[in-house]
Amino acid sequence: MSETPPLLVDIDGTLTDESRAIDPRVFPVLREWPETVVIATGKAMPFPIALCEFLGIERTVVAENGGVVFVEATDELQLRGDHEASLAVAEAYRELGHELGFGAVDLANRWRETEIVVSLNQPLEPLERVAEEFGLVVLDTGFAYHVTDPSVDKGTGLAAICAELEMDPSSFLAVGDSENDAEAFDVAGEAIAVANADETAKARADRVTEARYADGFLEAVAPYRP
Ligand SMILES: O=C(O)COP(=O)(O)O
Ligand SMILES: [Mg+2]
Q1: Are residues 157 and 59 in the same domain?
Q2: Are 2 and 194 in contact (CB under 8 A)?
Q3: CB of 13 shorter than 6 A to ligand 1
Q4: Are residues 160 and 75 in the same domain?
Q5: Along the 226 residues of the chain, how does pLDDT read in single tens digits?
Q6: Ligand 1 center to 226 CA (angstroms)
Q7: 43 a known binding residue?
Q8: Is the domain of 143 the same as that of 54?
Q9: Does one domain contain both 207 and 116?
Q10: Is residue 41 located within the same domain as residue 139?
Q11: Which range of residues forms the domain containing residue 170?
């Protein structure tokens, strides 16, 4: 067994199956990991916080692609990104006759503080055009289009957490599936893309697993488990 590194792990497409359902086989792995676990996701903060809470692990979280960082150990919450600009993009996109695509209640955006997301079944080209007008970019995570601030990402989120915890980002193992994991892959010491990852994530990873989704995560962490 290799020495266990601190772990940064993505949620959708990495801890889940393709339906976004978390695979319960990952729960004991995360609970028993002997080093720091950072849950780093494009989802809004309540989702990774709840995952840590229900798992009974420390809430050390990057949410909204780095727009939100929470470190329970130091009771530190950091918000970055340009929420006003992303809300203006949403308004301009609606004025073009499009919808965000998550219905009236919109649980995908309801708790966001730094970016917005649009459903993959909505047109991408007008969204990218409007986002550019406001100095933002659109990330396709395979689960949603994220209209986000290009100066903020999971890599800056990991760096912020490491500054709080006096850790070195290059000590981390990072596991993910999408272009929104790429910057975390760049700063982590070892980056592993699961087999279902997009081409950007695969190109920025040190290696790609044989297995897909949560099976790929379990394969990635197997060398570090007793
Ligand atoms: O919510 C998304 O679109 C992607 O989330 P993830 O970063 O956990 O894969
Ligand atoms: Mg993902």
Answers
A1: yes
A2: no
A3: yes
A4: yes
A5: 569 999 999 999 999 999 999 999 999 999 999 999 999 999 999 999 999 999 999 999 999 999 999 999 999 999 999 999 999 999 999 999 999 999 999 999 999 999 999 999 999 999 999 999 999 999 999 999 999 999 999 999 999 999 999 999 999 999 999 999 999 999 999 999 999 999 999 999 999 999 999 999 999 999 998 6
A6: 29
A7: no
A8: no
A9: no
A10: no
A11: 7-79+152-224
Residue found by looking up tokens 């290799």 in the block: 2
First-to-final CA distance of the chain: 6
Residue 113 in domain: yes
Could you give the number of structural domains in the chain? 2
d(CA 201, CA 180): 8
Is 2 a member of any domain? no
To test the pocket of ligand 1, the residue of 9, 10, 65, 114 to mutate (highest count of ligand atoms within 8 Å of its CB) is: 10
Of the three residues 148, 180, 198, the one that is the final residue of a domain is 148
C-alpha span between 130 and 188 (Å, rounded): 32
Q: What are 13's two structure tokens?
A: 């497409």
Answer yes or no: do 15 and 103 share one domain: no
pTM for the complete prediction? Answer: 0.97
Q: Which ligand 1 atom minimizes the distance to the CA of 15?
A: 8
Task: Please tell me the distance between residue 7's alpha carbon and the centre of ligand 2 in angstroms.
Answer: 15
Q: Are residues 36 and 126 in the same domain?
A: no
Ligand 1 pocket member 144 (CB < 6 A): yes
E-strand ranges in the chain read 7-9, 37-40, 60-63, 68-71, 76-79, 116-118, 137-140, 145-148, 173-176, 190-193, 207-208
With a cut of 0.95, is the ipTM above it? yes
Q: How far is the CA of 98 from the centre of ligand 1 (A)?
A: 22
Ligand 1 atom closest to residue 117's alpha carbon, by position in its atom list: 3
